[in-house]
Amino acid sequence: MASRREFLSASAAVSALALTRNSSAATTKPAKSTSTGPCLADCDIVELNQRIAKRDFRGMTKDMLPTPCLIVDLDNFHHNIKQMADTAKANGINVRPHVKVHKSLAVAKAQRDAGAIGLTCSTIAEAELFSGAGFKGMMFTKQPVGRNNTQRAIALSKKDPTFMFVCDDNKVFDWVEEAAEAHNAKVRILVSVYAGLARQGMPGGQPAVDLAKRVHGSKHMSFEGFMAYSGLVHTKGFEARRKASYESLAGARESRDLALKAGLPVNIMSGGATGTYNIDHEVGLTELQAGTYVFLDTAYWTVGGEDGDMAHYNDFKPALTVLTTMDSQYHPNLISCDYGGKAMAGHGDIVRDMPWLKVGTGGAEYGALSWKDGEKFPATGDRLEIYPTNLDMSTNAYDRYYVAQGDKIVDVWPIMGRAGAAQR
What we know:
single chain, Lyase, Ornithine Decarboxylase, Chain A, domain 1, TIM Barrel, nine-stranded mixed β-sheet, eight-stranded parallel β-sheet, globular
C-alpha cells in the first residue's frame, strides 16, 4: 500500500533480521510451538534485507522477523476500515480519523480511500508530516502555544489552506492573531469546548461563543465551528455510553445554538471516538475523530456493543499484535520473553490463542508470561503474538508494521515521526 519511495524515505532496510529455527525445551505441558523454521533457508541475511528494501515479500513469513515487532492482520484491518466507513455513511456523519494511533501513510490512505474527509492530529508535527505527504484536511486538536508551535501552525496554514487548529483561550487567540498578521496568513480555527475530559476546552455556551465571535471578526482567521472531545469511549455498556455522550456534549450543543442565533457559521462539530462512533451522529456532532478502530486495543474489548453483549465489543476486530520470542525459563510458572518495558508491555495485554497467560515485565528488554498450575504454557524458542492495551503507546515504540495474511508477510508500513520531538 505504501510506495517504494515512501518506504525508503521513512525507514531504511530492516537490519539484523535473523533466520530463526524451531527450538523447543523439554517442559511439562507446553503449548504447541508456533515456530515453523526459516521459510527462506536459501537466502542469506544480506539478500533478505535487499528484498525487503525492494518490497519483494515472496515466501516471507513471521518466523523470519526480529522480535519484538508489530504485526498487522490485514484482513481484520480491512474489516475495521469498512465497518467504520459503512456505519458513518449510513448515519450521515463524516470521519476525520486520528493518526496518533497509527502514524502511517498506508493506513491513512486506506482511511481516505474509504471516505475519510481528512485526518485528526495531536501534534503539529503529525499535521506537517501528513500534509507533506499530500493529505488534506488536517485538524490539529491542541492550540499552538509557544513560538515553535505557533510559527509552525502559521506556516502550515499558508502552505495548506485546508489545515485547521483549535483555540480555547483568549490569550492564545491574541498570540495567533499577532503571528498571522505578521506573516499575512489566514488561519482556520475551531473553538475547543469542554466536554468532560479535564485537559482542554473552555466552558460551553456564551464564553465559547464570545471567542467564536472574535475569531469570526478577525481578517486573519476563519471560524469553522466547535470541537468537543468527551473521552467517554470506554464507558461500559452501549446505553450508558449513549447517555454519557449526550450529557457531556450539552455545552457544545449550546455553543452551536447560540452561535447560529448570533449569525455565526458553524460548519463543523467535531469529537467522538471509536466507542461512540455509532452514537455521535445523535448527539450533535458532524464528524468523528475516531482512531483506535483501525487496530482495536484490548481496552475496548469489554466495553459492550449495541448488540447488548457486555463481554465483547464485536463491532471491530483486533488487528494489531506484538510478536515476541520466549527466551528463558528457569522458574516455576514463569517464562521470560523479549516483550519488555521498552516494547510497551502492559498488564492489560492479552496473549493471542493463550489468553490465560498473564503478561508482565521483568525489565527494559525483558517480558514475563506467567500461568497457573495445570494451564498450558509456551516453551523456550516459541513465538507468541500479544494484543496490546494501548495502541498509541505501542505505535510510539516501533519503527514499522509488518503486514500479514495468516503467516505470510505481504507488506511493511513505516511508522512516521521517529526523529524526536520536532517530528513526533
